[in-house]
Amino acid sequence: MKTEDRSSAVQYANALLQLTDLQGGAEDVYTNLSTVNKVFEETPEFSVLFKHPAISAPAKLGFIKEFAGGMDELSGRLLQMLCERRKMHLLPMVISEFRDLLRAKHNIVTGKLYSAEAISEEAVNNIKQRLVKQLRKHVELSVEVDKSLIGGYVLRLGDQVIDGSLKGRLQSIEKALLSV
Predict the structure, then answer these.
(1) Long-range pairs for 72-77: beta carbons < 8 A, 24 or more residues apart
(2) 163 φ, ψ (degrees, to nearest 5)
(3) Phi and psi of 139, rounded to 5°?
(4) pLDDT at 171 over 70
(5) I need a surface site. Which of 95, 147, 162, 170 has the fewest CB within 10 A?
(6) Once rounded to an integer, what is the mean pLDDT over residues 27-37?
């Protein structure tokens, strides 16, 4: 991913958030754009259509206008703008950035919990409650089994990693022994 592409995606997402703050409908915009992106991902012909140099920009724009006709105005305008500027490849990044901005606005933290074996729903809820209490934010937590951990858990919240796994402990012991 190019740095300028990410920067552009962040700018589009910020502008979209500001407009949804004024006009409302942020969740509808997110849902509509995600649906369009899913259709583009599942239908390779659309990707070819927007990347093909022989297809004129007005023809691509006409397709977008027809496709976006049934959705909210902001989503349609964003799709048209990306098409006009030949930036449709940014759509997945814009959606991702927009989702992150919405989560931050609603005080939601996302994380991933890795465990060596399956965890009960009760244990996951207990961990979530402790995180909510400590962080004072809503927590969206996905759980994944990773047998390589041997035992214990690894929790990733944004840039933070809390390693309570047996594998992590063994690696820290190994590092300490090698430094002697």
Answers:
(1) 72/25, 72/28, 72/29, 72/32, 74/16, 74/19, 74/20, 74/23, 74/25, 74/29, 75/28, 75/29, 75/32, 75/33, 75/36
(2) -105, 105
(3) -125, 125
(4) yes
(5) 147
(6) 90
Backbone angles phi, psi at 52, to 5 degrees: -75, 125
Which CATH architecture describes the domain 3-104? Answer: Orthogonal Bundle (1.10)
pLDDT at 145 over 60: yes
62 Cβ contact partners less than 8 Å away, ≥ 6 residues apart: none
Q: Which residue has the tokens 């991902």?
A: 41
Q: Does position 140 have pLDDT exceeding 80, yes or no?
A: yes
String of b and e for 156-173 (b: at least 16 CB within 10 Å)?
A: bbeeeeebebebbeeeee
Distances in whole angstroms, Cα of residue 77 to Cα of each of 58, 70, 73, 141: 15, 12, 6, 33
Alpha-carbon distance 146 to 66, whole Å? Answer: 45
Q: Are 97 and 13 in contact (CB under 8 A)?
A: yes
Note the pLDDT tens digit of each residue in 65-89. 777 677 888 988 898 899 888 898 8
The pLDDT, as a whole number, for residue 97 is: 95
